[in-house]
Structure formats: structure tokens, C-alpha cells
Amino acid sequence: MTASELITQFELQVNDITELSDVEELSILNRVYLRICRQAQWEFLKVNATGTILTDSVGSYIDVPSDFSMFSVNRNYTNNSISNDFDAAPKVIFVGPNYRPIQIVNYSDRRQYRNNNSYAYLDLANSKIYFCYPPVESTYDFDYIKVPAELTANTSPIFPSQYHSMIPYAMATENDILQLSPKAQSYAQENQLMYKSDLNDMKMWNANLLMN
Q1: For residue 186, how many other CB atoms are within 10 A of its CB?
Q2: Of 198, 176, 165, 180, which is closest to residue 28 (Cα–Cα)?
Q3: Separation of alpha carbons 105 and 110, rounded Å
Q4: How far, in Å, CA of 12 to CA of 7, rounded?
Q5: Separation in Å, CA 92 to CA 72, 74, 100, 119
Q6: DSSP letter (8 states) at residue 84
Q7: Hey, is 52 helix, strand or coil?
Q8: Pairing mode, if any, of strands 92-95 and 100-105?
């Protein structure tokens, strides 16, 4: 469903709150939508970034993608019989044509890894990923969880349509809606339960997409 269709469904649930403008309803919808997208590391939010490694006065770096939320696990094996040979979170930057892994370390730990070309860190304040020592390779590849774009009236949520109905339920439980709609107040518990049920169903679906 499009955002416009979801808003229509929401209005039917709460007896068409005429006090709210179209802009206000869309704002509430996006607030709910983005909160749902923050509930898990959804498979539909995983994307890949590639490009050329750059250099500035600090060192070699990668520009953080504009829709970056967090790094995604990208150095596990689907085959459980293969053991991991590293002790940190399996989140890396692959560099060069042979995909040499560069381990991502905490920003506050970066000095312990200085002058070591096997590590990098996220400098979120400056929207850069710095290498602790310039790699000889010139290209990079990594996976991350993105922040989805806000919806417009004619666009649809990024997740499967079978779960879109949770959005009107969640909208109906927002405090500003409860203050305006007696029907929303009366059905607040039921709407919250329906929202959580759909959200749990989507989490189960997401878990079943993983192969281990």
C-alpha cells in the first residue's frame, strides 16, 4: 500500500480525525514507519557500498554513505562447520581485488591499532571511515544497514506489503492521536496488540531469511 492508502486505513480506524492536516498525518506515519525500521537489523535494509579510497590530512578514508545507520555483519560463514578466525565482531571493510578484510574497531580504541593496515574505525562526527594505516589497495567494499527514505503520499514502505497493516495500528497508538480520538482511546490496547503481533511476525520472517 502507498502512504496515502495507509493513511486512509488509519482514518477509518480512528473515525477520520479531521483536526489533523494531510501533512500532520504523513508526519505521524513516517514517525511510526522509521521506528519500525529501527526495531531490527532487517534484511531489506542491508545494502552494499563500493568505491575508491580517498586521502586527507588525517589519513586514508571512506566517505560514510548518506543513508548509513550502522555496519552490517559481513564476515561470517553460512556453513556452521567453518570456524571464524577472528575475535572481534565480524564487521569488516574489504579492500582491493582480493577482498582483504580490514577489521572495524571502536572509535575510542583506534590509537591501539595505529600504524596497522588491518584495521579501520568509524569517525561518525566527520562522516568518515578512517583506516588506521593507509592500505596499499585503492578500492573498498562493505555492507551496512541503511536508513530508509521517508514516505511520500505515493510511495510505499520498503518492507513486504503483507506487513503494511501494522502501520495504521501503530499510528492509532500515538499519544497525539489518543488525545484527539475517543475511538483510538477505546481501542488503544487492541491496536497495540495488533501492531506488536504484526511486528513479531515480520521479525520471524526476517529471521527465517538467514541461512544459519
Answers
A1: 11
A2: 176
A3: 7
A4: 9
A5: 9, 7, 9, 9
A6: P
A7: strand
A8: antiparallel
Q: pTM surpassing 0.70?
A: yes
How high is the pLDDT of residue 78?
79
CA 38 from centre of chain: 6
Is 53 within 8 Å of 135 (Cβ atoms)? yes
Give tens-digit pLDDT for 131-171: 999 999 999 999 999 999 999 999 999 999 999 999 999 99
Pairing of strands 100-105, 119-123: parallel
What letter would DSSP give residue 31?
H
Structure-block grid coordinates of residue 3: 502512504
Q: What is the DSSP letter of 17?
A: -
What nine digits make up the cell of 40? Answer: 531490527
Cβ-contact 63, 162 below 8 angstroms = no
Angle at 199 between CA 197 and CA 201, to 5 degrees: 70
The answer to whether the beta carbons of residues 45 and 119 sit under 8 Å apart is no
